[in-house]
C-alpha cells in the first residue's frame, strides 16, 4: 500500500502535462509514512483527505504554500506542536486534525485562518489556555476541542462565534463555570460541554438558543432547578 501511495505522488506530481487535480482522497488505506512535500506540486488541489491512516511526523513547512479549502488528517499518528504551516493556509474552510498526537498550546497565528467554517482539534494533547486569537474566527459554524488538556476556564470570547451551530467542549480539563457569555450563541443547534473542574454554578443562560436540538452538560457542577424556558425549545430532542 505504501508503494501505491508513492506511485500516486510520482504520477500526479511529476507528469509533464497540466493536470488540474482538485480533490484527493486517500482515506483508510493503512498507509504508514511521513507526509510528503510533493503535494505542493499540485497547484489546483483544494480538498485533501488523508484520514484514518498511520501517518507519522508532522506537517512539512512547505505545505504553507498550498491553497487548500478542505484538509482532513484525522485519525493518524502525527505529532509535535500545532503545525505553523497550517496557520499560513488562509484559504482553509475546513480543518480536522482530530485523533493525532499533537501537543503544546494553540498558537496565536491560528487567527490567520479567518475563513474557517469548521475546525476539529479533538483527541490530541493540546495544553495551555485557549488563545484570544480564536475569537477572530468569526465564521465558525462548527468547533470541536474535546479530549485535550487545556487549562483555565472556557473563555468569554466564545460570544464572538455568533454563527456557530455546533460547539463541543467535552473532557478538555477546563474549569467551571460555563461562561455567561454563552447566551450570545443563538445559532447553536448542538452544544456539548462536560467534565468541568472547580466550583459549581447555577444553570447557564440558554434561553436564546431556540434552535437547540442536542444539549449535553455532563459533570459541569451545575446545581439548582432546570429552567422553565426549556419548554419553549421546540427542536430539543436530546438532553
Automatic annotation (TrEMBL):
<protein>
    <submittedName>
        <fullName>Putative leucine-rich repeat domain, L domain-like protein</fullName>
    </submittedName>
</protein>
<dbReference type="InterPro" id="IPR055414">
    <property type="entry name" value="LRR_R13L4/SHOC2-like"/>
</dbReference>
<dbReference type="InterPro" id="IPR001611">
    <property type="entry name" value="Leu-rich_rpt"/>
</dbReference>
<feature type="domain" description="Disease resistance R13L4/SHOC-2-like LRR">
    <location>
        <begin position="85"/>
        <end position="210"/>
    </location>
</feature>
<dbReference type="InterPro" id="IPR051824">
    <property type="entry name" value="LRR_Rcpt-Like_S/T_Kinase"/>
</dbReference>
<dbReference type="Pfam" id="PF00560">
    <property type="entry name" value="LRR_1"/>
</dbReference>
<keyword id="KW-0732">Signal</keyword>
<keyword id="KW-0677">Repeat</keyword>
<feature type="signal peptide">
    <location>
        <begin position="1"/>
        <end position="15"/>
    </location>
</feature>
<dbReference type="InterPro" id="IPR032675">
    <property type="entry name" value="LRR_dom_sf"/>
</dbReference>
<dbReference type="GO" id="GO:0016020">
    <property type="term" value="C:membrane"/>
</dbReference>
<dbReference type="Pfam" id="PF23598">
    <property type="entry name" value="LRR_14"/>
</dbReference>
